[in-house]
Amino acid sequence: xxxxxxxxxLLDLDGVLYVGDAAVPGAAExxxxxxxxxVPHCFVTNTTxxxxxxxxxxxxxxxxxxxxxxxxTPVVVAVQWLQAQGVTRPALFVxxxxxxxxxxxxxxxxxxEEGAGAVVVGDLGEAWDFATLNRAFRLLMAGPDxxxxxxxxxxYWRAPDGLRLxxxxxxxxxxxxxxxxxxxLGKPNPAFYATAVEALGLSPGEVxxxxxxxxxxxEGAQRAGLTGVxxxxxxxxxxxxxGPVRPDAVLDSVADLPAWLTGDPAAGGG
Amino acid sequence: xxxxxxxxxLLDLDGVLYVGDAAVPGAAExxxxxxxxxVPHCFVTNTTxxxxxxxxxxxxxxxxxxxxxxxxTPVVVAVQWLQAQGVTRPALFVxxxxxxxxxxxxxxxxxxEEGAGAVVVGDLGEAWDFATLNRAFRLLMAGPDxxxxxxxxxxYWRAPDGLRLxxxxxxxxxxxxxxxxxxxLGKPNPAFYATAVEALGLSPGEVxxxxxxxxxxxEGAQRAGLTGVxxxxxxxxxxxxxGPVRPDAVLDSVADLPAWLTGDPAAGGG
Lengths: 270, 270
Known about the structure:
The structure is a homodimer. By secondary structure, the first copy, chain A, is an alpha/beta fold. Helix content of chain A is 31%, strand content 18%. Chain A has helices at residues 27-36, 52-61, 74-85, 96-99, 130-141, 167-178, 190-199, 214-223, 257-261; strands at residues 8-12, 18-19, 22-23, 41-44, 71-72, 90-93, 118-121, 148-150, 156-159, 162-165, 183-184, 207-211, 227-231, 249-251. In chain A, α3 packs across α7 (190-199) and α5 crosses α6.
């Protein structure tokens, strides 16, 4: 556990604030407490299929009142990363609902086969036909310095009709074909956490990431220089504490976070 | 150079028997000599878009009279490998022109989402839409022991209208999504050479691979226990002899092969 408690907070959503269709008891009060006390915080999620307003809508259903600008998705982080790199004219391979969030970067028209400042890949789902993937490939090959930006490396997800390939498979296809590594702007990538910390106006050592995934949340954050706190909700299992990752603290749930931040010895421990 | 000259021969096509639209001088006579002397031999190529009869047709244009059963493509090798594994009902993700070569294995119907004995991936080109790649993925996930068989790992090729993704990109996508390594049945994979050697009824130490690619042909064959001979035609450059691969012999062209096989000291050297 760090000597000094962090000043800023990054909060995972699924498994921390809610589990399935149910709010985690005390989560709404904990978030309200952060807001009331002026604790710099962001809500971080790897979702690439929903824009920020949809995340805000979902949290509202669990009694959480959250500002859009406090939600960090890989899309938001990618926009900030591209701006920091001075990149414009990105070619977007993302769902229409999220493409709008790149508007300020003057995206490349969908029929252009050259001139991309970056190639941004998310979960296009059914829209991944040969011509589309080949266009992403050609745009990368047309410029040796054009970055391949991945909004995630998820392998697949479980849809109502069965398993479905996610963005990660297509990112790997492009990495292999071009011989180029993707910049991954989702958890647990360091670039994701670095951009999130910058959004809070703090340094990594001043920020805690709170999550239920001991690898993606806790280990990923620790590797980026943040404090990593694990909660015993969501996907947590006791075996998580037997592995190689040592959380800086383990809390019964996010409800204990405000007390832990103020150093209350009754709130959780290492 | 081995003490005893090999008894059987594997011959690369492009760059060894012909270069572009021109036959290599003496190639037809060299092949006729192997046939006349009863030297066990096969013609090996990584092409997956043409069936064997098309390869035979092409060689005939260069004055080479070759039997279909002496041509080994990744498709032919895949069929033999699947038979050796006792696998039937492969799900085929290969061009229609080559799918026919799998007929004896009773391929899975194109709409079946389970029950594949293997998933075989070639260069489907334009036919790679999301539903098709996702079907390959689901078939693999439906059976933990279902092998992913790749007919090649080429990244891309140059079509008249520009670069086009080849099978390798899709193989990598499936490997990543399933967490499973593909069995690659093209040069320079050891399984390819092992099957080719079996087709000759010989052991690896009795067979020489003759090629113009110091890595894919010579090194690949040597790793599989074959003798590897490099020819100074096709993609050969003098720099090939400065690298880490030591060919067992270097011949000016395939025209020198018959004399080299009989141990004629005037024919090439190490």
